[in-house]
Amino acid sequence: MTKINTKPNVFLITLDAFSYRIFKEHLDRFPYIKHLEEESVVFENAFSIGPNTFFSFPGIIGGIYPYHFGVGIPENVTTLYGYLKKFGYDTALINESNALLTPLFGYGNGLDFQNHFLEYSHCESDRKNQTKFLKTKTSKQTDQRNVSLKDRILKIYNLFDNKLIKDAGRIFACSLVYAQMRINGTTESYPERLHLYNQFHHGILDYIENIALEPNQPHFVWIHTIVNHLPYLPKDNASRFSVKEINKLNYYGISQFYTKKRSAKLKDLYIESLEKTEELLESVIHHIREKGLLENSIVIITADHGEEFLEDGYFGHTPVSSSDNLLNVPLMIYAPGILPSTKIDCPVSTIDIFPTIIDLIGIGENENNRGISLKDLIFATQDTQITKYRNRTFFSESWSIEGLTDRKPGYGREKKFFTVRTGEYKLKIIKERKSTNRTIENYELYRWTMRTPLSISDNIEIFEGLRNQLSAHLYEEGKYAQMVRNVQKTPVNTEKQKLINAAKKIKLKM
Predict the structure, then answer these.
(1) Which of 141, 171, 359, 401 has the fewest C-beta atoms lying within 10 Å of its C-beta?
(2) Residues near 57 by Cβ (< 8 Å), separated by ≥ 6?
(3) Residue 482 contacts by C-beta under 8 Å, 6 or more apart in sequence?
(4) Does the reported pTM lie above 0.85?
(5) Span 402-418, average pLDDT
(6) How many Å is the Cα radius of gyration of the chain?
(7) Measured CA angle at 374 (ends 102, 26), to 5 deg
(8) Cα–Cα distance between 51 and 396 in angstroms, integer?
(9) 198 within 8 A of 206, measured Cβ to Cβ
(10) Any idea what the Cα angle at residue 87 is, between residues 84 and 89, rounded to 5°?
(11) For residue 507, what pLDDT band results from cuts at 50, 70 and 90?
(12) What CATH code is assigned to 9-136+148-294+319-485?
């Protein structure tokens, strides 16, 4: 007798650097996503636990905060796909060449299928080092070879307290990178970037074809796209910019050699890349439906972080910003026939995605999860049922990274950046170690619902309350991380290990 699959397929689509705020400001340019929202559960105030990819994905995929673990997924933490695999799911990752989501960082280990497309990467160094990224082990030490020339120059200039000197250093370092890209040619060019996307897009559709051939097997498919990450990729033959202009603007952005005028143009190009993302989403969901899979599928669409164009003085997605331009991300669950269509303004976190998925499927709870399931919130019919969600506190964590493969935890770093959010208030905390015995802290208090800064002296009780909540959070997460580290793996053969240890002792005596 053929076994009938009663568990829904799960498609997790993560959009790198997708700004929810910019998307909402230009909503009429995205008719398909607008239509999709009308048929989905939409969380209008979803916040990432980190301002960039390094710090956000441990929450989405591992259900953990990164500060006490470091970048990536630790060995003893069960991933979302690892948990689903225990319940009979076939698991896959289709990653548009984001090197930070490879086995080197703990992602993809144990998957039934993964394709990272690093051989087509827009980043030349990722092409060269793809074998390294696909390994499952990495040194715990910082790989200084991945610290760029620009970062080394900036580190020298940042030793000075004078802002003018620091700014001059940034301009000098970034202009060198920009000139190098223009003179030498680069894989970041539009034709190469488009070629990567086409390979990635075809790879997704081909995998969906394979799923359709296995209707009795539940599937988990994680799709990650970098269309909205520099170099930005506009829709084919629909850009206001020529290919030459696209390349020039992307080189400005990648090298951080920006001005207000260049940033404004880059934002226009970025919005065009959001339209390209919409095109991708429409194609993928149409294919899922066409293959008869949509009726028994849950599609989750979210982002790791947003993008900034000097709105608050920052460009890109730098941790020091940690503004809501970066932390406020899309979170939509599209499951026609399974979930109602509703818009929820109650704040939630990307760390809630893991527990929500397994709760919706009905396969219990994973002890790793530091977030909570949003299932009751989705089906809530009264305000009293929402109270427990509205009273929550939300956090983001990040710190200064020393090279691409630096996976060390956040404590002990020179610079650390946190946000803590309760109700309508948000506190941003920057901790910077100046010497062994001296650390300075800077604070910014906001009424985040109104996007307005507040005076700390006039709101001292709110400030103290938020700061204390962050301290309590770091303490509790530190205890949890220590508990995870203390979990020892059971030896495969204890008797064999005893013999090996005895043999070593004999050799030492001889």
Answers:
(1) 141
(2) 14, 50, 72, 100, 101, 107, 304
(3) 68
(4) yes
(5) 92
(6) 23
(7) 70
(8) 7
(9) no
(10) 60
(11) very low
(12) 3.40.720.10
3-state secondary structure 38-81: HCCEEECCEECCCCCHHHHHHHHHHCCCCCCCCCCCCCCCCCHH
Tokens of 363: 């396969």
Strand partners for 222? 12, 93
Span 389-403, average pLDDT? 93
pLDDT band at 185 (very low <50, low <70, confident <90, very high): low
Q: Is 118 strand, coil or helix?
A: helix
Contacts of 137 (CB under 8 A, 6+ apart): none
Please give the C-alpha separations between residue 13 and each of 117, 334, 481, in angstroms, as whole numbers. 16, 11, 28
Please count the residues of the chain. 510
In three-state secondary structure terms, 180 is helix
Question: Alpha-carbon distance 415 to 116, whole Å?
Answer: 31
Question: Can you give the residue ranges of every domain in the chain?
Answer: 9-136+148-294+319-485
Cβ–Cβ under 8 Å, residues 466 and 427: yes
Q: Looking at beta carbons, which pairs linking 281-288 to residues 24 or more positions away fall under 8 Å? A: 281/13, 281/32, 281/33, 281/36, 282/32, 283/201, 283/205, 284/11, 284/13, 284/204, 284/205, 284/208, 284/223, 285/36, 285/334, 287/204, 287/205, 287/208, 288/11, 288/208
Identity of the residue numbered 1: M
Helix spans in 75-162 (H): 80-86, 124-128, 130-133, 149-157
For residues 347 and 47, the answer to whether their CB atoms sit within 8 Å is yes
pLDDT at residue 359 above 50?
yes
Q: How far is CA 510 from CA 89, 499, 501, 507, in A?
A: 53, 17, 15, 5
How far, in Å, CA of 277 to CA of 171, rounded? 32
The model's pLDDT over 227-239, given as tens digits with 9 standing for 90+, comes to 999 999 999 888 9
User: Of 410, 282, 353, 323, which is closest to residue 20 (Cα–Cα)?
Assistant: 323
Please state the φ and ψ torsions of residue 416, each to the nearest 5 degrees: -135, 145
Q: Is the pLDDT of residue 146 over 60?
A: no
For the cut 90, the answer to whether the pLDDT of residue 15 exceeds it is: yes
Chain centre distance of CA 164: 33
What is the C-alpha separation between 232 and 225, in angstroms, rounded?
Answer: 12
